[in-house]
Design brief:
Hypothetical Protein Pfu-838710-001; 204 residues; single chain; CYTH_domain; 6 helices; alpha+beta
């Protein structure tokens, strides 16, 4: 079970301000491209499962993941997640020919077939790009995201946590002390992608 604090930032100005504040704690920046798949009958989506290939740093390597049973409330996300590395050439080819996914020898693909009844008729749903700056701050690993969809850009700070309520308060304190506008994330990035529009901003 992956548990994360997820707080949405209002705009690029808030993102840049937080980036400047956290710059002394910067560890690395990752360039990610996320591509999603389902079968022709949407068996995964209809069961709240997400199958993803994530390419890192201009295709240096790729990770296959399966997320299931997601919940998100008050800025805290919980989801079951499995991850496995896959050969870059195989992953790249699978984007153009999704049926090749079914031929990957992995625990994830076996689970997709056995638990969700998916055959080899995969379809590519498309995806989005993300720039993730990683910081180590007060014992927390903070991930500051700039996510580019086909319909706009969103900004978010995430933190994987064993004590999410405590860590959420720490992060909220950082944002509030510096006048950075934020709100709790209500949707995963995949849900935003599938909706085709950015969530509205209602918090003043």
């Amino acid at each position: 079970m992956e548990v994360e604090v997820k707080l949405r930032l209002k705009d690029s100005t808030a993102h840049q301000k937080l980036s400047n504040i956290l710059s002394p704690y910067h560890k690395q920046t990752l360039f990610q491209e996320n591509i999603f798949f389902d079968d022709k009958d949407s068996k995964l989506s209809s069961n709240a499962a997400v199958l993803r290939l994530r390419f890192y740093n201009l295709n240096s390597h790729c990770i296959l993941s399966l997320k299931a049973k997601p919940t998100i409330s008050d800025g805290i996300s919980r989801v079951q997640e499995l991850e496995e590395p896959v050969p870059l050439a195989t992953a790249t080819e699978s984007v153009a020919k999704p049926q090749l996914l079914g031929q990957i020898d992995s625990k994830i693909m076996k689970m997709v077939k056995q638990e969700y009844g998916v055959g080899d008729e995969f379809v590519c749903l498309g995806g989005f790009k993300n720039v993730r700056a990683v910081y180590e701050w007060k014992g927390l690993k903070l991930e500051l995201d700039e996510t580019t969809y086909g319909f706009g850009t969103s900004y978010e700070i995430e933190c994987e946590s064993l004590e999410p309520e405590r860590d959420r308060k720490l992060i909220e304190g950082l944002l509030e002390e510096n006048g950075i506008e934020y709100d709790f994330s209500d949707f995963s990035k995949f849900a935003v992608f599938r909706s085709g529009k950015l969530p509205g901003w209602v918090k003043n």
